[in-house]
Amino acid sequence: MDLSFSPEDEEYRIRLRAWLEKHQAELAGAAGLMQGGGSANILDAIGMAREWQRSLYEAGYVGLSWPKEYGGQEATLTQQVICSEELSRSNTPPLINTIGLTILGPTLVQHGTEDQKRRFLPKILTAEELWCQGFSEPGAGSDLAALRTRAEQDGDTFFVNGQKVWTSMAPIADWCFLLVRTDPSAPKREGISYLLCDMHTPGITVRPLRNAAGGIHFSEVFLEDVRIPATNLVGELHGGWSIARSTLGHERSGLSGVLSLETNLIRLWRTAGTLQRGDGVALDDPTLRRELAQRWIELEGLRHLGFRTLTAQIAGREPGASASVGKLFAAELRSRIAGTALKVEGSLAQVAKRSPHAVDRGRWHAAYFDAIGHSIGGGTAQIQRNTIAERVLGLPRSVPDELVKGGGPGE
Q1: Which carries the bigger pLDDT value, residue 382 or residue 31?
Q2: Left (φ > 0), alpha (ψ -120 to 50) or beta: where does 361 sit?
Q3: What integer pLDDT is reported at residue 408 of this predicted model?
Q4: Coil, strand or helix at 137
Q5: 114: burial class by Cβ within 10 Å (0-12, 13-18, 19+)?
Q6: Residue 214 in contact with residue 366, Cβ under 8 Å?
Q7: β-pair type (233-234, 218-229)
Q8: I need a labelling partner for 100 at 20 to 30 A (CA). Which of 50, 177, 256, 264 fits?
Q9: CA-CA distance, 272 to 382, in Å (whole number)?
Q10: Is 40 exposed, middle or buried (0-12, 13-18, 19+ CB in 10 A)?
Q11: What average pLDDT does the segment 206-213 reach?
Q12: Residue 238 and residue 373: Cα distance in Å, rounded?
């Protein structure tokens, strides 16, 4: 494992830090508006988020891995990591089009037609068009191949009927990439296609869902006779399952999650050092100090796991199922950090998020419930453990292949 960066990489880091320092006022304005909350400024916040992503793109810090012919930077893997680190440490607002940038964009680069690449990729980079992901359904979450949303082709048009759920960004998205069943008589993995759907098409109804933490981060989406041009089919008809696996691979790869967890842990440590507890502060409790130190040790373990994956990628090796190890560990660490935060708060952990007595405006109360979702989204913890057992540890399947009809959950 190589933990060093080249002189060229360090020069790249210096240039990025200088750009961020120059744009501190713009950055602070975007962060303040986007974190302000309330429905009155939601449109302003979305507009500001689009402008912030466009500014980053014009400076050369969006689409780092994408080919230059489609507006990308073709940056090295180490430069991509450095960019993520510096943006996180500068507390920049998150990019509003993350789903398009990290999931759909790389999928189109790999599987899309030339027309699809030139039509969609530039507007993903500039946040002119926002994207959401239409994979999960009420009866097909972990067992994604059991999806039932139907698409029937009539000439040059698909007519789509069904329901999607847990769709992040759906209320503000312009487009959605959908998995649909186009051959109901085929084995469940072989009758699925991958479509790009304009969210402004008649027949689409979006209903936001409020989560346990009180936020609205995802929605259910209903599709009734939604017309999608056949030119929006990605890959071959009935060939969507292999593309979906590629899409999920983009979602789970890299050092994702490490830097945001580091930011959270630093903030929690500071909270523990200032929150009154008896005659002192929470950090005076030796049990809490040991637990916070343990969380930091675990974070460093996750970071080095990411560097091991990065080293393999630089050497030209695919990370493969080891990405599942990082995804699982990151989700569990997020949950443990949130649990430690509630211990730091003590009796105040029971205070409602909107109470004036809530610590950090209820941040940790919300984080505790949000952490549960991270163990489900992008592949449940149980599915990740199966993948690790079979493909990393080489353990046998719990059910022999000849007894499996249609495959196991999440495959």
Answers
A1: 382
A2: left
A3: 39
A4: strand
A5: exposed
A6: yes
A7: unpaired
A8: 264
A9: 33
A10: exposed
A11: 86
A12: 30
How far is 50 from 170, CA to CA, in rounded Å? 16
Q: Is 314 left (phi over 0), alpha (psi -120 to 50) or beta?
A: alpha
| Cα–Cα nearest to 179, from 141, 216, 210 | 141
Structural domain including 228 reads 131-240
Between the alpha carbon of residue 182 and those of residues 136, 201, 300, 301, 347, the distances in Å are: 16, 20, 45, 44, 54
Q: Quick check: 302 and 333 in contact, CB under 8 A?
A: yes
| 179 phi-psi bin (left φ>0, alpha ψ -120 to 50, beta other) | beta
Q: What is the CATH number of the domain that holds 48?
A: 1.10.540
- Cβ–Cβ under 8 Å, residues 19 and 83: no
User: Which positions ≥6 away from 28 have C-beta within 8 Å?
Assistant: none
DSSP letter for 379, please: S
Please compute the mean of the pLDDT values over residues 14-41 and round it to a whole number.
70
Task: Give the H/E segment covering residue 363.
Answer: helix 363-374
Same domain, 306 and 234: no
Both 190 and 332 in one domain: the answer is no
Backbone angles phi, psi at 9, to 5 degrees: -65, -40
Dihedral sign of CA atoms 21, 25, 30, 35 in order:
positive
Catalytic residues: 251
**269 and 297 both lie in a single domain:** yes
User: Does residue 394 share a domain with residue 287?
Assistant: yes
Distance (Å, rounded) from C-alpha 268 to C-alpha 284? 14
Query: Whole-number mean pLDDT of the chain?
Result: 86
Residues 269 and 369 both lie in one domain = yes
Question: Is there a domain that residue 1 lies in?
Answer: no
Query: What 3-state DSSP class applies to 163?
Result: strand
Of 213 and 37, which is predicted with more confidence? 213
The type of residue at 111 is H
Question: Considering the entire predicted model, what is its pTM?
Answer: 0.82
Which amino acid, one-letter code, is at 204? I
